[in-house]
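Researcher: For the record, we're logging two predictions in this thread. I'll number them. Prediction 1 follows.
Model: Prediction 1, sequence and structure:
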Amino acid sequence: MSEATLELSPCSKFSWAWRKASGRGAKCKWLEADLVYLEDCLEVEPRTYNSLQLSEKLAQDRNVQLSPSRLRRLLKKKVETETHPPYS
């Protein structure tokens, strides 16, 4: 059955779009290993970094392009999940 002749019941008018799409939004441009690498660098090196410097370091060392604001959100989310694990 082609997409043009796809018949849907009234209650599932748009459900085919959700089943057909494999994922929503943009795909991740980073891996968990990239964040672990940054954590290791922060533990080893005696200096402090701001988010702009961390995003530049990630771009130079790991070839991962993340904006400073996105990197801040990822690190904040990681810290929150480590200190306050979700209820099971």
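Researcher: Logged. Prediction 2.
Model: Prediction 2, sequence and structure:
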Amino acid sequence: MVATKYFLNTDEIRQIQMLMALLLCIPPQSKLREIFDKALAASESQTLNRIKPCTDPSIAGLRDWFESLMVQEGLTPEEQSLLDWQSNSDNMSAAIKEFISIQDKTNLKISFQPKA
């Protein structure tokens, strides 16, 4: 039974492992770590109550999904702080460079697809 359960969750196991590997590569004083630390420190309860399934995994669809989640009334202070952070082009430029560097080192790129 354990082997079957492991086999059935292999995709999820690999996704978690890839996220762990990505996070392990982020320098401690980086902008990328700063925003992930902020996101992880935020309370998830209100976000989970508002979240809706993403139906379009294209770049434009992901943007629309994110905006529908985060650009509305009633954001928590933590959520607003995340939006303010990512609205600062210096923050995002640095985080993008750091993220691309990790992609280059790992030869991996995160992509999203609808859950089957």
